[in-house]
Write a sequence for this structure.
């Protein structure tokens, strides 16, 4: 048989068609992840630490640099605890362009050119806090990640529900939405693997193996996430993330950004700001967040008429038909960064 003919009959994945059964309710995702390097490595890494079913008990939240700047971290952790997601382990991570694009590999195809121009400046503005969460209230059959995704709400303020997590923490716009979470157990495994290239697995290994270690009684001294808050707060200055106030402060300053704030101070002129992001270094300190507040408030996050390769699934596939409390309204939510 000729080499070309031999290649034609070889499988294109070392994983079987059932590898992600029970880890995602989305057939398209189960198939795509068979060919995804990070998902494949994540299966191996996670199963070396503990049983794969533990991916139903745990999820994680990333408190992004905008949550740090906006000083939302304590509020987010408080709300999560009140809803049964207890911090089991925590570490810090830093986003770079490659991590961002690989984390949202199946959604970034729908990102607008404006969002792509801004996102690295935003996520690269300081450390993020990665917190492993143990779900103490999940209904039978409902993975922790799915319950949190349903409760989180859309990244788009126009699709907000008053009771969703992002609304309760004061989401500002499509990019200043403060948190990232995994959609389902398959994403928990894949994305923890992506974070592991920077953070390793030791930070969460014991918690994954011994979920009973999560403290019943909470205090800041015993909380693994709270131990890191002072570190991330020291790295990112506090900011009000208020667009009107940010423009006023920039106008009162000097240099390129003051000039832009004075002569291009409307949403229709955001293109001039995006052009300046490339050649001009963002200012240091709070002024950096003034610029980010303006551009994130004015851009369009998504390409119109373009669907992501994989959409955020509904929680309905995992829950009893009569349980309406966690039904997700996020289908089509693509402004996830």
């Amino acid at each position: 048989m000729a080499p070309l003919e031999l290649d034609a009959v070889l499988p294109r994945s070392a994983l079987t068609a059932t590898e992600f059964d029970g880890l995602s309710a989305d057939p398209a995702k189960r198939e795509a992840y068979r060919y995804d390097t990070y998902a494949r490595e994540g299966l191996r890494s996670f199963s070396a630490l503990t049983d794969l079913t533990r991916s139903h008990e745990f999820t994680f939240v990333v408190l992004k640099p905008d949550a740090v700047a906006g000083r939302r971290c304590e509020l987010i952790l408080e709300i999560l605890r009140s809803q049964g997601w207890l911090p089991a382990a925590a570490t810090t991570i830093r986003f770079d362009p490659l991590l961002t694009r690989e984390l949202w590999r199946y959604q970034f195809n729908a990102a607008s050119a404006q969002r792509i121009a801004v996102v690295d400046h935003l996520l690269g503005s300081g450390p993020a806090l990665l917190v492993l969460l143990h779900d103490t209230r999940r209904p039978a059959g409902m993975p922790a990640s799915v319950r949190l995704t349903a409760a989180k709400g859309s990244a788009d303020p126009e699709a907000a529900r008053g009771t969703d997590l992002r609304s309760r923490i004061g989401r500002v716009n499509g990019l200043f939405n403060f948190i990232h979470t995994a959609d389902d157990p398959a994403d928990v495994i894949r994305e923890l693997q992506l974070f592991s290239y920077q953070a390793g697995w030791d930070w969460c290994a014991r918690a994954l193996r011994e979920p009973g270690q999560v403290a019943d009684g909470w205090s800041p001294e015993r909380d693994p996430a709270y131990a890191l808050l002072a570190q991330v707060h020291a790295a990112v200055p506090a900011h009000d993330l208020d667009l009107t106030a940010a423009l006023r402060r920039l106008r009162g300053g000097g240099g390129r950004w003051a000039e832009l704030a004075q002569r291009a101070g409307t949403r229709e002129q955001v293109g001039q700001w995006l052009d300046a992001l490339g050649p001009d270094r963002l200012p240091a300190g709070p002024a950096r967040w003034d610029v980010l507040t303006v551009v994130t408030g004015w851009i369009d996050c998504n390409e119109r008429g373009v669907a992501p390769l994989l959409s955020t699934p509904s929680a309905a596939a995992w829950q009893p038909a009569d349980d309406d409390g966690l039904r997700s309204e996020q289908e089509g939510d693509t402004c996830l960064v």
Observations:
- Residues 27-236 form a domain with the Alpha-Beta Plaits fold (CATH 3.30.70.141).
- The first strand starts at residue 58 and ends at 63.
